[in-house]
Amino acid sequence: MSKEFSFPMPTLARSSRGLLIEQVALAEVAGRFGTPVYVYSRAALTAAFDAYRRAIGTRPASVCFALKANSNLGVLSVFARLGAGFDIVSGGELARVLAAGGRADRVMFSGVGKSRAEMRQALEAGIRCFNVESASELERLNEIAAQMGRVAPVALRVNPDIDPKTHSYISTGLKNNKFGVAFNEAPMLYRRAAVLPHLRVCGIACHIGSQLLDSAPMVEAARRVLDLVGQLAQDGIHLEHIDLGGGLGIRYGDETPPTVDDWLAPLLELFEGRPEELCFEPGRSLIGNAGLLLTRVEYLKPGEEKSFAIVDAAMNDLLRPSLYDSWHEVVEIATRDVPKRTVDVVGPICESGDFLARDRDLAVEEGDLLALLSAGAYGMSMSSNYNSRPRAAEVLIDGQAVHLVRARETLESLYALERPLPPSQS
Ligand code: LLP
């Protein structure tokens, strides 16, 4: 990365106190809460949400934050106060929305494997819509709603069979992906849904992939959705909303993703003047560049072929580099007058795949702090306890205020639900 790398987090800046988020020095956060620690900026996530709101203008549309990107209650409470809806994929995520003060009637429930218990929980809570992904799920939902004497609001998630040109693990709208119902089956399934007495057809949904750097595939998918909406209208099926999913990419390194305006403009234009409400389900573009992972260098390990900076964060904290080979920019917290060395930034986990960044030029000494940028989305939410490592703490900065929104896990919490076997009787 070039020297002039500009931080993708809008509220991150260098000062005489080292790197700051808003008005708080990251060195101070590390001193108070230890490392590794995820740090989020309220102003940055608010700015990201406002960009959607501004681009949408006065058109009736809702922005439903996709919890899978980050499901911390502190983060969710900020989105709830901004008036966001929520896109969930499990009963656990629904419980989090409610615990954070979010409204059930703004919740969209996606996912291919909704269990009976999750359907009951969501019906009980009164969510806005189930995004149904198969014929069997439609029947099951009708049956559960009947047992409860309820009517379930449904949309079908359709699979437009479009290549989003992103990493294969995160494309979802191709025929060979497990997501959604095939386009040509959709009209038949809508007719079926319309006659099931405990379902109320209210919308249509589609999501083709994540970290998209070009809006063209999304516009193409939206065109196909619009055709289908027309076809359904001919069958007498009228929809209240059209949900175009998430997917807008962010800048990690040298990518140049569209702005929110450029992403939304062709979509808003396509649906101009139509009566349906538009819904969007962004995750990454709302929180990705509003968070970073702060870590401390434990050891420097120079080698003949490779040198390593062994830090206290690992693949259990931030899985994306190991899983997708993704790039996260690494920056020093304090500016140091030491020569740069080229290192792999790796964690303490016993796997060669445990790396956070490779071949980076860093001016660091043992004990120094580093930040892995653009880690607000799919960072903490994909973390694990692998190697019995307690999960990191999470801190949300708001101006000068520092809120600990998740305490660091304790060693006891790692096995609190486990029991050794009693002594053997034989
Ligand atoms: N709606 C649905 C139905 C989705 O499946 C997803 C993401 C989203 C919304 C939010 O998409 P976004 O705006 O964040 O692109 N773990 C991967 C990303 C997986 C995304 C899966 N679906 C990563 O770290 O890159």
Summarize the structure in short.
This protein is α/β, with parallel strands linked by helices. The protein has twelve helices and 21 strands. It folds into two domains: 157 residues, Lyase, Ornithine Decarboxylase, Chain A, domain 1, CATH 2.40.37; 173 residues, TIM Barrel.
Please outline the helices and strands.
Layout: E1 12-15, E2 18-21, E3 24-25, H1 26-33, E4 37-41, H2 42-56, E5 61-66, H3 73-82, E6 85-88, H4 91-99, E7 107-109, H5 116-125, E8 129-132, H6 135-148, E9 152-159, E10 181-182, H7 186-195, E11 199-205, H8 216-234, E12 241-243, H9 260-270, E13 277-280, H10 284-287, E14 291-301, E15 308-311, H11 320-324, E16 330-332, E17 341-346, E18 355-362, E19 369-372, E20 393-398, E21 401-406, H12 411-414
Parallel strand pairs: 4-20, 5-6, 5-13, 6-7, 7-8, 8-9, 9-10, 9-11, 11-12, 12-13, 15-17
Antiparallel strand pairs: 1-2, 2-3, 4-14, 14-15, 14-19, 16-19, 17-18, 20-21
Helix pairs in contact: 2-3, 2-9, 5-6
